[in-house]
Amino acid sequence: MLLTILLLIIIGGLSAIIGSIVGIGGGIIIVPTLVYLGVDHSILHGITTQIAIGTSSVILIVTGLSSSLGYLKTKQVDIKNGSIFLFGLLPGSLIGSFLSQYLTLKSFNLYFGIFMIFVAILLMVRHKIKPFKIFNKPKYEKTYIDAEGKTYHYSVPPLVAFVATLLIGILTGLFGIGGGALMTPLMLIVFRFPPHVAVGTSMMMIFFSSVMSSIGHIIQGHVAWDYSIVLIISSYIGAKIGVKVNHSIKSDTVVMLLRTVMLLIGAYLIIKSII
């Protein structure tokens, strides 16, 4: 029992710290870890693929809320444009949560493995992809000046935002990842957000999308509440640490470590789905 609690503290804390620094929430770490410990090795009893996904969604509510409050204090959250994203993200998250019931262990390993590798590659090339100017509409444009005095001009056309976030929302509910792994690159590349604002706004998106996907998973009984309590406490503390670390560490260092781990996990899951 003590070993289980210790494992959950480490999982919740580390995933929240890394997720808050990079703006991905941490679900992309929590879900495969719970599946590995619960389904593959029976260290965490009662865990199924769906329960791992549902439990992650509940945990990300706390991570998203804690991080959002921290980033709000430092004015790194674009509430207005973030609200526009919610029109697609919320219904998509609910739809995805119900679609997750059709995932078998093998299909989860295959699809999630492919998804992990895709996100890892996206993180790898995100600085090399120039922001799309086609979506930068003057009538929606906002200006942001960061702490170093650099000026950014970015905009969020509502229709483009709705379609993109609806798809991301479905993946959010389907995999229990919070959506930050895709929302942050989307804001940086498509909508040309300032990096720090993209991370802060992404955490707000993770909070709301996780609330919606959690509703779907709770209705279906896909949450391990006993494990959730420990994960929630450790995630809350980890998220606060992550926000503070965000100001003192190069996020590129964390991203490099994260994408390496994601590539390895993604390859492992794909191989498992085949053999």
Care to give the gist of this entry?
The protein is mostly helical.
Low-confidence spans: pLDDT under 50, at least 5 residues?
Answer: none
State the total count of DSSP E strands: 2
Our count of domains comes out at: 1
Give the neighbour order of strands across the main sheet.
1-2
General form? globular
Helical element count?
Answer: 10
pLDDT averaged over residues? 86
Instruction: Give the H and E element order.
Output: HHHHHEEHHHHH
**What's the main sheet like?**
2 strands, antiparallel
Structure class = mainly alpha
Helical residues, percent: over 70%
Distance between the termini: 32 Å
Task: Supply Rg.
Answer: 18 Å
> Which range does the strand content fall in?
under 5%
Describe the structure.
With 275 residues, the chain is mostly helical. It has one domain. Helix content is 73%, strand content 4%. The chain has ten helices and two strands, in the order αααααββααααα. A two-stranded antiparallel sheet has the order 1-2. The protein is globular, with a radius of gyration of 18 Å. The relative contact order is 0.23. The model has no long low-confidence stretch (mean pLDDT 86).
List the helices and strands and how they pair.
Blueprint: H1 2-22, H2 27-40, H3 49-73, H4 79-99, H5 105-125, E1 141-145, E2 151-155, H6 158-175, H7 180-189, H8 195-219, H9 225-246, H10 251-274
Antiparallel strand pairs: 1-2
Helix pairs in contact: 1-2, 1-3, 1-9, 2-3, 3-8, 3-9, 4-6, 4-8, 5-10, 6-8, 7-8
